[in-house]
Amino acid sequence: MANHILLLILLALTCSFAFASAEPSPLQDFCVADFNSTVRVNGLVCKDPKLAQANDFFFSGARLPGNTTNAVGSKVTPANVAQVPGLNTFGISMVRIDFAPWGINPPHTHPRATEMLTVLQGTLYVGFVTSNPENRLISKTLQAGDMFVFPVGLIHFQYNVGNGTAAVAIAALSSQNPGTIIVANAVFGSNPPIPSDVLTKAFQLDKKVVENLQTIF
Ligand SMILES: *[C@@H]1O[C@H](CO)[C@@H](O)[C@H](O)[C@H]1NC(C)=O
Ligand SMILES: *[C@@H]1O[C@H](CO)[C@@H](O)[C@H](O)[C@H]1NC(C)=O
Ligand SMILES: *[C@@H]1O[C@H](CO)[C@@H](O)[C@H](O)[C@H]1NC(C)=O
Predict the structure, then answer these.
(1) Given 33, 37, 92, 201, which residue has the most CB atoms within 10 angstroms?
(2) Given this structure, which CATH class describes domain 23-179?
(3) Where does ligand 2 bind, in terms of residues with CB under 6 Å?
């Protein structure tokens, strides 16, 4: 009986460690990514720690607003391990998002990260959709200073509803490499394309509409 309890406690501890973070815990102070290495691992190879520089842990690319002159009226400036090599193995990254008046960050998901967004300026209507079968939209209008969570893997979006003014947000993501899948681009803009017959049936659309969407994305 005592053995069983011990086993249960051990199991519980093992599980809580295994699931404590979505990405493995670091085994050293840091592991600045060596982009030149040809070795393929889950993550990126560490460069010699003696060669680490302050700039490996630094990012200035979010000082300036992103260029929002595009079809959706928004620009995401990422600060993940690709831009900040010192993030390697740490399970965290950030983005700056700029919005033109009435701009959107279109429905998308991050396969490897939960996101917590903070509005710095303006007013955003944001939301995410729960998984099947409910597909419930959970949404909120945020003012400057407000924060909102987008759970890992769920489709979410932001819409600048601030009476014709620009908006700015920053967000933290629980992965050094969150990944982004923009729904419209992935479905209608894949390379090579998904057969239009598949999309016509899946979206219950006229084939011409599907083919038109495929030319847009
Ligand atoms: C990677 O290669 C570039 C160009 O050869 C070099 O400047 C840079 O220092 C190298 N980085 C590392 C981490 O070795
Ligand atoms: C912003 O992007 C648009 C479209 O690509 C381009 O025409 C414009 O020159 C860019 N503006 C700046 C300031 O870079
Ligand atoms: C939106 O902005 C315009 C122009 O600045 C102003 O006249 C109007 O009252 C504003 N509307 C709201 C709802 O804030």
Answers:
(1) 33
(2) mainly beta
(3) 67, 69
